[in-house]
Amino acid sequence: MAGPTNLLAIPMTRYRHNRKPTLPDLLRTIDRLVPPRDYSHGPPCPSFIVPDSIVLFCRRSVEELRDGSLQPHFHHRWVLVIPLQGRGRMVVDENDYPLRPGRTLLVPPLRLHQYRSITPGPIHWLFLTFELPTADAGAAPPQPGRLSLDGRRVLGEVLALWQPADLSSLRAARLAVLVALLLLSLRRVTPVPTVPAPAGPAVVLRRINEWLHAHRDGPVHLAELARGIGCSESHLRAVFRQQFGLSLGRYVRETRCRSAALRLQEGRLTVTEAAAACGFTSVYTFSRTFKRVLGVPPSMMQNRQDGRRRTERSLRR
User: Which residues contact 126 (CB under 8 A, 6 or more apart)?
Assistant: First the structure.
């Protein structure tokens, strides 16, 4: 087996030893500027969305990667996985995506995923999780990519800037822009996921998600869900637990809470409306379930959105 690959050696060395520019340095740079040919038009900038609420962390072993559990994981945030050492596979909704140093995978919210066939020994997989102000994010497919040279340089800047205990407003803004540039720099790779059998678990999961999306604004009864995808409730419960390692009821509850979190962040629902949309007759019960699933009360999702709006208004003044 080949030795570990340190993809960040060059960019991290470069940014660590750069000295801060002085005013004479800036003056010499300005002297090299030439008059533009057109004072009204500059080069077009590709459109991109700046992520928010960014979190970085690294997993260094299979045990850390799985969080001590063999069960699949899913959440309401975007996840960018960047393996720097070690190989493995990430299974998203029962479709297989191989990962190795230099390859990346961007996983949208509300996707059931787990890790398999991780190489023995130490690993270093970098995770960037964040929020994006996009509607229906759960319908987006996973996006395999490749870390380009520009991407490695930008990632080096992201890691050099990442200091959660000392993220001023300016540093946080720079971090968000750098992560947006990192996403823009990733070279798309044609996905070659495992093709499931016609009656395989991926098809069952897709049908469940389609039914939940079609009935997202009302209560969910598992018997109706089972009839909607053409099987009995007991059979669906047994197959789901066998294939995915968690109960169907838990998956439905957590999926609806995480979907509600996305809609609360976008300002599309109040907490009361989110509770009703998730099929809860009591706001108290919804809030308690929401906090158990996501670790924060639903009002915090609203407060975060209100804070963003206040910041945007202050920047426009």
Answer: 56, 57, 58, 81, 82, 83, 84, 155
